[in-house]
User: Which sequence fits this backbone?
């Protein structure tokens, strides 16, 4: 697809999406669309696309005139003992899938393009949002979210999207980004799309490739635990009953969670019971070679 033929012009193509490496190249490529008042949708990714990413791309394709996907394994959101070096990468495949999903432009910068020598700025969402769950210093830590918000803020400034798409799978990330957008008045709408699951319930993740077959079977206990949590919490009108049921499911698969917690879905403040507001039940666990996260939101009854 060429830049003079955005989807609104009814020209479609399944050629691999075009990758641009430079900030200025991307801005220049988007300038005509911006001048013409076309809506721009951004889907930020770290690549190794799966159906979860594709659902975001399809939503962007449906709703926006121009779809930009970023493809960047962001080093600043990985801790020193995390999987930056072995994070799965396959740019050729990603460009092909992006093309098939109707992406107009892929922004795939080198690290030095986004973090040039002397880079010294960070965007940090404070408070209860980034120091709990994955942000607990004993886990990934707040530095993980500082890396995410810094790169997402840069992407927003580079692309200038009208809408940006994120997955509910990373519920905490989505809550943190929503807060950043609100607090810093980014003129972008954040659209969070539902978790995409395998048939047996396992939430899709690029990191699922780390699972050996036996661990892949055990990993489904995370989604089973969350389903049990929701079902039992509703049946007994008790969050504690829900969390107990989830712990039993995890234990049956010999999974020791890093955390299994219930929090207000927007503020991530701890909750002791069903509050009448959406409650996020989030779990993280190491299963074999993969650290997996998953969650469910218990919506208020009748809400
Ligand atoms: O969710 C992800 O893949 C990443 O955290 C994101 C939003 C692309 C930022 O690097």
Assistant:
């Amino acid at each position: 697809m060429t830049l003079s033929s955005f989807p609104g012009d009814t020209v479609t193509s399944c050629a691999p999406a075009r990758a641009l490496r430079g900030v200025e190249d991307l801005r220049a490529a988007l300038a005509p669309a911006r001048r013409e008042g076309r809506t721009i949708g951004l889907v930020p990714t770290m690549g190794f696309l799966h159906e979860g990413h594709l659902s975001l791309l399809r939503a962007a394709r449906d709703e926006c005139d121009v779809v930009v996907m970023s493809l960047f394994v962001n080093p600043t959101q990985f801790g020193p003992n995390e999987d930056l070096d072995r994070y799965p990468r396959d740019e050729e495949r990603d460009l092909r899938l992006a093309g098939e999903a109707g992406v107009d432009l892929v922004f795939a910068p080198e690290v030095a393009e986004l973090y040039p020598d002397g880079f010294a700025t960070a965007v940090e969402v404070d408070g209860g949002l980034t120091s709990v769950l994955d942000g607990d210093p004993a886990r990934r830590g707040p530095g993980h979210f500082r890396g995410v918000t810094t790169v997402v803020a840069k992407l927003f400034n580079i692309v200038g999207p009208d809408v940006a798409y994120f997955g509910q799978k990373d519920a905490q990330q989505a809550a943190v980004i929503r807060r950043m957008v609100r607090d810093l008045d980014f003129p972008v709408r954040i659209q969070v799309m539902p978790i995409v699951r395998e048939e047996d319930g396992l939430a899709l993740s690029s990191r699922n490739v780390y699972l050996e077959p036996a661990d892949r079977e055990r990993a489904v206990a995370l989604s089973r635990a969350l389903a049990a949590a929701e079902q039992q919490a509703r049946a007994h009108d008790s969050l504690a009953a829900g969390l107990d049921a989830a712990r039993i499911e995890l234990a049956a698969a010999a999974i020791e969670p890093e955390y299994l917690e219930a929090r207000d879905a927007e503020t991530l403040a701890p909750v002791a019971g069903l509050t009448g507001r959406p409650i996020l039940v989030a779990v993280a666990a190491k299963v074999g070679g993969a650290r997996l996260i998953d969650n469910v939101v218990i919506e208020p009854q009748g809400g």
Summary: Residues 44-46, 74, 77, 148, 151-152, 170, 173 surround pantoate (CB under 6 Å).
